[in-house]
Specification:
The complex is a heterodimer of chains A (749) and B (99).
Chain A lengths: L3 E5 L3 E2 L4 E8 L4 E11 L10 E5 L5 E4 L10 E4 L3 H4 L4 E9 L7 E7 L6 E6 L5 E6 L5 E5 L10 E7 L5 E8 L10 E6 L12 E3 L2 E4 L5 E4 L4 E9 L5 H8 L5 H4 L2 E6 L8 E4 L7 E4 L3 E4 L20 E4 L13 E4 L7 E8 L4 E8 L10 E5 L1 H6 L5 H4 L3 H5 L4 E2 L1 H8 L19 E3 L25 H13 L5 E4 H7 L9 E3 L6 E2 L1 H12 L3 E4 L7 E5 L6 E4 L26 E2 L7 H5 L1 E16 L20 E2 L10 E8 L10 E7 L6 E2 L22 E6 L5 E4 L11 H4 L2 H14 L5
Parallel strand pairs in A: 2-27, 28-31, 28-32, 32-34, 33-35, 34-44
Antiparallel strand pairs in A: 1-3, 3-25, 4-5, 4-6, 4-26, 7-16, 7-22, 8-13, 8-19, 9-10, 9-16, 10-11, 11-12, 13-14, 14-15, 17-18, 19-20, 19-24, 20-21, 21-22, 23-24, 26-27, 30-36, 35-36, 35-37, 38-39, 38-40, 38-41, 38-42, 41-43, 43-44
Helix pairs in contact in A: 9-10
Chain B lengths: L9 H8 L7 H11 L7 E7 L3 E6 L9 E7 L2 H17 L6
Antiparallel strand pairs in B: 1-2, 2-3
Classes of the chains: A alpha+beta (749), B alpha+beta (99).
Chain lengths: 749, 99
């Protein structure tokens, strides 16, 4: 059981800037905090072992421990208003596409007091049918129910009206698609004796309702899973015809006076705002980032881009496990002192029996690079994988790794504590894909010492901890380096990397925004040198939110290896309106950036490379200095026992590998767990595994750019795991060092 | 779904020698069956001492529902693979393999 964990408000800071840390202790009444520079997070006794460097800081010390909870689940809130409190008779309606009608009570729209419950809740009852619950605030509630469960993933028109004079309630539950023999439509009229008290000062809440917790704080409850489109609240009993008029199209003038709110979710899709298009303008905000730019009930399939026909994208998909910001109170703040060396750091927090590392990057002062080499920490990729649950949720985990899924205490904790939120490799509880991931929560998979089921036999590292094989090697060989993150690349663009000569990637720099891509492209065009020290990079296109910090969006559109598939019509990012999916499907295969691109994957053992004729070309002689003619490259290592493995890339002229590229070596002898990537498969046929397909290989590639720069691609996630072998004296380390030295040399290629 | 055949017994020794890595097509087919089991009730390992000790666990297959730890403790991944292979072999063939 995890006893302590935390997160920070930023992930990249420069001297003079402050970073806040939020910490939660399960039981401990105190904990110690200190600053460490992360060097090598791999605890494998076969390797150099765990290495950190303690750095004195202003926040070193003992702190009071307290438990801070996370409340997941999205909704939309419209602040309280006299118009809501004045409601006597009323009508409420929406188009809904429920995804877990069987789950239990779920609120569609509510106006009720958190403490007393006074007001009304319009939603699904335990059976999954429509219900309107009315409460007078003295503990008395009456409810009228449709009495028939709705079908999952079908659009329904749902509505209710309440007549304050007669006590009459009408409920309407009408599926948009009728089926023979299965009738889920209902029209129920009932009478209640209760007088619901809407004079409660409560907000209108969509997809949940407010409750008061035992600690006195107000939270939301009965979160709804599924889409809601065009919710409407009116201050009198509407006829079925009037409801129909409101459902489809602008409200007729005759209904303006009756409208309290008509929330059109197709407005301001890129934001958290929800817009009331009634004359009253009761705008609201979403909480915990429910999915926007979702196809609405009226989506025809003729238009795929929400920007072109926003009126068909009036749905928001709410989930009871959405999470944006854990919202914890701050424990301590660190202002980065001038002169603190750029690099990968962490706030180390520890109780007597547990510890956590809250990692962040210290960059150099603005415009003052302290090295010629920049190691770019792929924080967007770390976020995409944040707290992933595949080893406990995905049947194929053991097949992909060719061995039992191996869980850490962290994975067990995340399995049991779903409120810590999902990665973009997970699905929500309702089966829909997770398209947003935030870092404003503990990301327990982004930690030194953490082992991942996906990381190959041996050290079993993935993403951040695997990348410490690179930081360790840079330290061990005494190469100077600065660190920056994806966020710097995205928000500062080319300026963030312009001072450097060499851009070195991590082991798996998979997720790229357009801004990040353009920055690196400009760097190469200016003569910059690129060392691609991994594989499967420049794969998914992402978007950062335009105003909210620390959150990315991924739409798993059409092609590629996908943990889930975006629904038809939902391939465009809601944050920006850009088309999502693979960069390769947008005309920019990874081969155009670094000469190689994703070709195969398998997660059991790694293999080695064999030199090709090209490696003896005089243009490449600097790379192989000190490497024997017949040496196998990297037939050793901590990640799967070889330098070529996990995910591997290959050169392909037709996908953009430059014609002058030298393929210096290729890997071979991969296990049958390795398989060709899906974007290479048009007609599936046998012969796609390691040992069968020529596409299951990593290509070591070098080429010069027209501006005097050059690119070197290792094309394997496992490469870095071989660097430290034999006390850093081995051909993988030698080749990498040869490349770094020559790439730092100003002489043009 | 693949049904294990009498002649597949030749794969047992192959697996015992190399539980993780290169396998013959026949053994791979059996492993695809074993390793592709649904999550509810599926075996997994929980690392109880990094790089030294793993405890056999049974996944719940339901989000938030506890993962059950067993008494079986291993000191190598190969040992764990062999143990689970024997359990699964018995499950699919009724035949109990000895060590
Ligand atoms: Fe990936």
């Amino acid at each position: 059981m995890k006893q302590i964990m935390g997160y920070s408000d930023k992930i990249s800071v420069r001297p003079g800037e402050a970073i806040r840390f939020m910490v939660s202790c399960e039981k401990a009444s105190s904990y110690k905090a200190r600053l460490v520079r992360i060097i090598h997070g791999d605890t494998n006794p076969e390797g150099p072992g765990y290495k950190e460097q303690a750095v004195k800081s202003e926040f070193d010390g003992t702190y009071k421990g307290r438990k801070q909870a996370i409340f997941a689940g999205s909704c939309a809130v419209i602040p309280s208003h006299p118009a809501f409190d004045k409601l006597s008779s009323f009508s409420v309606q929406a188009m809904v596409w429920p995804t877990t009608p069987e789950k239990g009570r779920q609120t569609i729209l509510s106006h009720c007091d958190a403490k007393s419950g006074a007001g009304f809740i319009f939603g699904l009852d335990e059976s999954g049918g429509l219900a309107l619950a009315l409460s007078d605030g003295t503990g008395k509630t009456e409810e009228v129910r449709a009495g028939k469960p709705m079908l999952s993933r079908e659009w329904y028109f749902v509505a209710a009206s309440y007549n304050a004079v007669s006590g009459e309630v009408c409920l309407y539950q009408k599926p948009m698609v009728p089926y023979a023999k299965v009738d889920t439509s209902a029209r129920v009229e009932g009478t209640v004796t209760i007088k619901p008290r809407n004079e409660n000062g409560a907000p209108v809440v969509i997809a949940a309702h407010p409750v008061r917790m035992s600690d006195g704080r107000e939270r939301t409850s009965a979160h709804y899973n599924g889409k809601i489109d065009r919710p409407i609240l009116a201050s009198r009993v509407l006829s079925r015809l009037e409801m129909e008029q409101l459902r489809s199209g602008g409200p007729p003038a005759s209904l303006h006076a009756a409208l309290v709110g008509l929330w059109d979710f197709s407005k301001e899709i890129t934001t958290e705002r929800i817009i009331d298009v009634s004359p009253n303008r009761h705008h609201g905000e979403t909480l915990n980032l429910p999915a926007r730019a979702m196809t609405g009930w009226n989506w025809t399939g003729e238009e795929m881009c929400w920007k072109h026909k926003p009126e068909q994208y009036g749905a928001i998909h709410f989930h009871d496990d959405d999470l944006y910001d854990a919202g914890w109170d701050t424990d301590f703040t660190f202002t980065v002192p001038a002169g603190l060396r750029s690099g990968l750091y962490a706030a180390h927090v520890a109780t007597e029996d547990d510890e956590d590392f809250i990692p962040f990057v210290v960059k150099p002062e603005r415009g003052k690079a302290t090295s010629k080499l920049v190691f770019v920490v792929p924080t967007a990729s770390y976020m995409a994988y944040a707290n992933e649950h595949m080893a406990t949720d995905a049947t194929l985990a053991e097949l992909l790794t060719g061995r039992l899924a191996t869980l850490q205490a962290t994975d067990v904790f995340l399995h049991e504590h779903r409120e810590y939120g999902y990665s973009c490799y997970d699905t929500h509880a309702d089966g829909s894909g997770v398209c947003y991931s935030s870092r404003l929560r503990p990301i327990l998979t982004m930690r030194p010492k953490y082992q991942s089921w996906l990381g190959g036999k041996g050290s079993s590292l993935w993403q951040m901890n695997a990348d410490t094989h690179i930081t360790d090697w840079l330290e061990a060989l005494k190469f100077d380096y600065d660190c920056i993150t994806d966020e710097d690349l995205h928000f500062e663009g080319y300026e963030a990397i312009a001072p450097y000569r060499v851009f070195m990637t991590s082991t798996h720099h998979e997720y790229w925004s357009k801004q990040m891509w353009d920055a690196l492209d400009a760097f190469k065009k200016a003569g910059g040198r690129l060392i691609y020290a991994g594989a499967n990079a420049w794969y998914w296109r992402i978007a950062y939110h335009q105003t909210k910090p620390g959150v990315i969006e991924v739409r798993r559109a059409e092609g590629g290896i996908r943990a889930w598939a975006a629904e038809p019509g939902e391939y465009y990012h809601s944050f920006t309106g850009e088309y999502g999916g693979l960069w390769r499907r947008q005309g920019l295969a990874p081969q155009k950036m670094a000469g190689t691109g994703f070709s195969a994957q398998g997660f059991d053992l790694s293999s080695y490379y064999r030199r090709t004729k090209d490696s003896f070309d005089s243009r490449a002689s600097f790379i192989f200095e000190g490497v024997g003619k017949d040496e196998l490259i990297g037939n050793f290592g901590l990640i799967g026992g070889g330098a070529a493995g996990l995910e591997v890339d290959r050169a392909d002229r037709l996908l953009g590998t430059p014609p002058n590229a030298l393929v210096l070596a290729s890997s071979e002898n991969h296990t049958p767990v390795y398989m060709v990537v899906l974007e290479e498969i048009l007609i599936n046929a046998p012969g796609l595994c390691g040992g069968e397909s020529d596409l299951v290989r990593a290509d070591l590639v070098f080429y010069e750019t027209p501006s005097g720069g050059a690119v070197f691609a290792t094309s394997s996630i496992a490469w870095a795991g071989s660097l430290s072998h034999n006390n850093y004296d081995n051909n993988v380390s030698r080749i990498t060092a040869n490349v770094v030295k020559r790439f730092l040399d100003e002489r043009p290629f | 779904m693949y049904q294990i055949r009498p002649e597949d017994k030749a794969c047992i020794e192959e697996f015992r020698k190399t539980p993780i890595g290169h396998h013959s097509p026949n053994l791979q087919r059996i492993l695809n069956l074993f390793r592709g089991e649904p999550m509810a009730g599926k075996f997994a390992l929980i690392c109880t001492r990094p790089h030294r000790e793993w405890t056999l666990a049974v996944l719940s297959g339901t989000r938030g529902e506890r993962i059950r730890m067993t008494e079986e403790v291993f000191h190598s991944l190969e040992e764990a693979e062999w143990y689970v292979f024997k359990q699964r072999w018995a499950k699919y063939t009724g035949e109990h393999l000895s060590d």
